[in-house]
Amino acid sequence: MTPVPGIRLPEPSDLTRPFWDGCREGELRVQECQSCRIRFFTPLPACPKCRGVDWKWVVSPGTGTLYSFSVVHRPALPDRATPYVLAAIDLDDGWTMMSNVVTDAPDTLRCDQKVAVRFVPVSDEITMPMFAPVGSG
Amino acid sequence: MELKDVAIVGVYASQQARLIDRAPMELIRECVLGAIADAGLAPEDVDGLAIDWPGPGQAPGDPASWGAQFGIDLSWVGDSIYNSAGPRGLIQAAAAVATGQCTTAVIGGGMCGQADKRKFATVGAGTTREFFDPWGAFVAPSFALIAQRHMHEFGTTAEQIALVAATIRNHGHVNPEAVMFGRGPYTVEDILASPLIATPLHRLEVCLVAQGGAALVVTTLERARDLRQVPIAVLGASQDIYGAMYTDPPLYRKDGKIGAAATARSLGMAGVGVDDLDVINFYDPTAFEVIRQCEMAGLCKEGEGGAFVESGAIGRDGRYPVNLDGGCLSYSWSGTQQMTLKIIESVRQLRGQAGYRQVDGAELALTAIGGPGAQKYEVCVLGRM
After folding, report:
1. Phi/psi at B293 (5° precision)
2. Which of A41, A108, B126, B357 fits B324 for a cystine, CB–CB 3.0-4.6 Å?
3. CB of B49 within 8 A of CB of B74?
4. Nearest-CA distance from A54 to chain B in Å?
5. pLDDT tens, B170-194?
6. Taking CA atoms, what residue in B is nearest to A113?
7. CA closest to B133 among chain A residues
């Protein structure tokens, strides 16, 4: 596919490649510490709570709430379509990530509303996890 | 020796403008020599520094290059990005002086030039932030995530945020040195009529992008008493650092009070309370950030910052005059040295050299940069001795 314009593509590292591979396969993966059972993001070499390295990638249900958001009218890169929604998403399984909200009605978004992951291919290699309000088409 | 035994003795701010078509090295030399001259010192009096060296000549990026330029031996150098500017740079240089690593230190730098030949040290930019950039995040929407949540939790209004922008931009409107000099005055309606950048923030509620440079000189308070200017002591200074900048989403619940601990430590070191402050130079990458800082610094309670600014408290004649130079919204944002400009405005006020905007009898000033978007906050309390 032709890469979606205006998106600075991530360059996966050995640490983060399982995350991006998961997105391409339709799974939202997150690191889970096998000692203290916390899930943490963004990816780290060791658990931020117990500092242990006994962690593994697990699959998140991908449902959560919209903690906060901003409808962006002036894009980071000039050829990205606007407006787009930058968001902080609290996942129901206890971790938080930055993402975008996919919606035709950005002006109706509200903090704390329910959202669920949508996988959006942006290039042949990269599929990005974005979120949509639950109940919307 | 302690931090408070160190004083700022020289300052210099260059022209600030959208475009300064000069070689960066020339601008930086002007600032460095200007600050040294303001102190009544000569380059050979300097033995410590953290100053940009973009080149040509010597080793671009290495501030030790200044040793050869000044024909001096140095006993302390800091890095040329974060140690060269703002409260953090001041803390590093003052600590070097306080611990005897050097006696007189200069921090400073600048950026300028046409875009295609612009050469300056970047602020952590240049690499892709893997879980930030792909979603189209940048400074304004990152800070907007904090503002949006604050509005949701506390009912802070768009008008209150716009009032901050109008107040600070009107301070810049009458500052002949400001990039936006003469471009106002602005009403709340004017601010809200400007285009949305990243909700809830409008164009006039986010800071400028301009060019310019600045520098300052510190030495021991003992030496300072024999120099040209009234010594301005570093009474207290501290930092809150939560993590790498622009990597994870800023969250109000976690980052909303960033700066509170550093501000409390700085005031504690100075042995003063917020009520004692005469002048405040808060960081204003967005207008909302001033509301957040009023709350976390303890000028008002959490959630009451909107009403606090409505009371006129941050205006020219308010209880806590904030950013009388016009701040980043109107005076200048110029890469790293805009952080030094905030210190310089405090120094000018404390010296009684602020001219038309002088706060009568200013003796104690708070200066800060950073915020939740940047995951860091640097603050210092300066006092006239």
Report:
1. -70, -35
2. B357
3. yes
4. 23
5. 999 999 999 999 999 999 999 999 9
6. B152
7. A8
Residue tagged 């504690």 (tokens) = B268
pLDDT tier at B126 (50, 70, 90 boundaries)? low
The pLDDT value recorded for residue B127 is 67
pLDDT of residue B121: 34
Distance from CA of B296 to the nearest CA of A (A): 20
- Measure in Å the smallest separation between the Cα of B85 and chain A Cα atoms: 26
Does A129 reside within a domain?
yes
> Could you give phi then psi for residue B340, rounded to 5 degrees?
-75, -35
Bridge-based pairing state of the strands B6-13 and B48-51:
unpaired
| pLDDT number for residue B115 | 61
Chain A contact set for B201 (CB, 8 A): 70
Residues of chain A in contact with residue B146, where contact means CB-CB under 8 angstroms, are 68
Question: Looking at the DSSP assignment, which residues form a beta bridge with residue A117?
Answer: A131
pLDDT the model gives residue B81: 81
Instruction: Give a yes or no: residue B201 inside a domain.
Output: no
The verdict on a CB contact (< 8 Å) between B137 and A6 is no
In a domain, B110, yes or no: yes
Task: Express each pLDDT in B245-255 by its tens digit.
Answer: 899 999 999 99
Q: Is A66 a domain residue?
A: yes
CATH of the domain at B60: 3.40.47.10
> For chain A, how many structural domains are there in total?
1
Per the CB < 8 Å rule, is B135 touching A13?
no
Question: Does residue A1 lie within any of the structural domains?
Answer: no
8-state DSSP, B359: P
Q: Is residue B175 part of a domain?
A: no
- Can you give the residue range of the structural domain that contains A67? 17-133
Tokens representing B23 are 């070689």
The three-point CA angle B154-B158-B164 to 5° equals: 100
CATH number of the domain enclosing A129:
2.40.50.840
SS3 state of residue B202 = strand
Q: Give chain B's domain count.
A: 1
Q: Is residue B74 part of a domain?
A: yes
The parent domain of residue B88 ranges over 3-118+210-224
pLDDT (tens digit per residue) in B299-321? 999 999 999 999 999 999 999 99
